[in-house]
Amino acid sequence: MDLVFSTEALDRAKRYAAWRDAICDVYVHVNVKADDPDNYDGFIRETQFGNVAMTECLVSQQLISRRKSHLSKLDKDCYYVQFIQHGSVNVVQSGDSFHTSAGVGALFCASEPYDLQCMGKVRSYYLEIPRETFGNRFAGGQAPLAATMSTGRGLGRIAVEFCSMLASQGTNLDTAIRARLGEELMDVLALAFDSAHRDEPMTEQVVQKARLRSVKAWIEDHLCEPALSPELIAKSNGVSLRYLHALFRLEGQSVSNWIWNRRIELGHDMLLRSDHNARSLTEIAYRVGFSSSSHFSTMFRRRFGIRPSDVTRSRSS
């Protein structure tokens, strides 16, 4: 993730003022009141997954407030999803108050006034998600203004694991893949919060679909690695090989076929892009996880009905 700001290199006496100037007045448009401004620590890192902006931050004990005066400075209508790694926060919005921690995730509206009372030092992920785009994923076509969910089990656990995985491994992915993963993340989050908000029991099929999205996202991160295998995927995602195959039966195909199809699609995209003009077919084949250009060409013709060279020739003409 890209570092936006950190107090680490600053003199301790200047940290709090620098934090307010750089972050609160410009970056997020909020008021802050630290309990101990002379001993302030904080950082913000950010990355983008399509429509989803992911931020990891550390803040010292403080009250964060967004008021009506801040709303006019906002250029988008969004929700925040909060996943705390350590510490705890009291979230107050529209008369509702709820306590969040490492076991409880929160959803609240970034475009409405709110208070966040950070208890001690708090390290957390925040996901900024377009309000309309996210709301359309809920069963009723609208997300709740504010809500919580357990992140220790079921869909909540899958959601927070998905978020953590993207934060640690998704930074260097291709922009198009990152955008696709952002869409998958919004789907998982909407499923999790919708189920928690309506107090509906989570059916096995709902949990399987959410877990499948999470597994797919992990595969996308490792798609071009030649050693990628169903056994490695299952082990890295904490599921049995049998369960992994069951998940992909929901797609009507095997996990191996899904991987090969995604690699072929990625290779096709690379052949179409002008920034890959200098790469040979063999280079592209190896880059997307094939062990030979002949295997790549065979799978490519089977998938698209044309040869890889036909794609480059049509692009040049």
UniProtKB/TrEMBL annotation:
<keyword id="KW-0805">Transcription regulation</keyword>
<keyword id="KW-0238">DNA-binding</keyword>
<dbReference type="Pfam" id="PF12833">
    <property type="entry name" value="HTH_18"/>
</dbReference>
<feature type="domain" description="HTH araC/xylS-type">
    <location>
        <begin position="213"/>
        <end position="314"/>
    </location>
</feature>
<keyword id="KW-0804">Transcription</keyword>
<dbReference type="GO" id="GO:0003700">
    <property type="term" value="F:DNA-binding transcription factor activity"/>
</dbReference>
<dbReference type="InterPro" id="IPR020449">
    <property type="entry name" value="Tscrpt_reg_AraC-type_HTH"/>
</dbReference>
<protein>
    <submittedName>
        <fullName>Helix-turn-helix domain-containing protein</fullName>
    </submittedName>
</protein>
<dbReference type="InterPro" id="IPR050204">
    <property type="entry name" value="AraC_XylS_family_regulators"/>
</dbReference>
<dbReference type="InterPro" id="IPR035418">
    <property type="entry name" value="AraC-bd_2"/>
</dbReference>
<dbReference type="Pfam" id="PF14525">
    <property type="entry name" value="AraC_binding_2"/>
</dbReference>
<dbReference type="InterPro" id="IPR009057">
    <property type="entry name" value="Homeodomain-like_sf"/>
</dbReference>
<dbReference type="InterPro" id="IPR018060">
    <property type="entry name" value="HTH_AraC"/>
</dbReference>
<dbReference type="GO" id="GO:0043565">
    <property type="term" value="F:sequence-specific DNA binding"/>
</dbReference>
